[in-house]
Amino acid sequence: MEALLQGDLSGIVLNPMVVHFSHGIWMITFVGRDCTPAMVHFYARQVQIAWEHLAELFTGGDNRVCFQAAAFVASGHIYMRMPQTALLYIQKSCKFIEAGKLRFVPTRGRPPRFSEDLHETLAALSQTIYWANYLFLMCGGPEPHATADLEKQFRQELPVSKIVCPCLH
């Protein structure tokens, strides 16, 4: 989180695409759409740099990282009220999930030990299901067939209703 807030473009903690895209979304969403020529140029530059990094990332061959980036970009477009572009990136996420054979881990009623990588992967898999359903239900998008197997896997392998937190008893 600190790397994102500080705008760390070193690539050590975050891919620079995440920083540029996040800052661009933040500016548009929270600062407002300032249409002065200088701000339009600044927004456009942030987006251009983010897309350049995303294209580079997509050619890198790491399906897990590509899937997470596509899910992140889909989320951003949902927040910006651009459901068609979000749908495109949900579909890209699903292709990377399939290509990387990414899946939920069986828990057998107990939560797994969450390494940072596992946590990020599970969060992005869950997010992909959620946004596909959101786009269908709220935005009139297509039925979420691409995530149907993923959602079935989620319900079978990570049965949330069976995970009990000992601190709640």
Fold and architecture overview:
By secondary structure, the chain is an all-alpha fold. It has 2 domains: 1-60, no CATH class; 61-163. It is 66% helix and 0% strand. It is built from 7 helices and no strands. The protein has helices at 2-6, 16-31, 37-58, 63-79, 83-100, 116-139, 148-157. The longest helix is centred in the last third of the chain and has 24 residues, at 116-139. The radius of gyration is 17 Å and the shape is globular. The chain starts with a helix and ends in a 12-residue tail after the last helix. The model has no long low-confidence stretch (mean pLDDT 79).
Count every helix, treating DSSP H or I runs of 4 or more residues as helices. 7
What pattern of helices and strands is seen along the backbone?
A: HHHHHHH
Apparent shape: globular
Mind summarizing the main beta sheet? none
What oligomerization state is this entry in?
A: single chain
Helix coverage percent: 55-70%
Mean pLDDT: 79
The helix/strand class is: mainly alpha
Domains counted in the coordinates: how many? 2
The parts where pLDDT drops under 50 for at least 5 residues are none
Strand content: under 5%
Distance between the termini: 32 Å
**How many β-strands, per DSSP?**
0
Q: Write down the Rg.
A: 17 Å
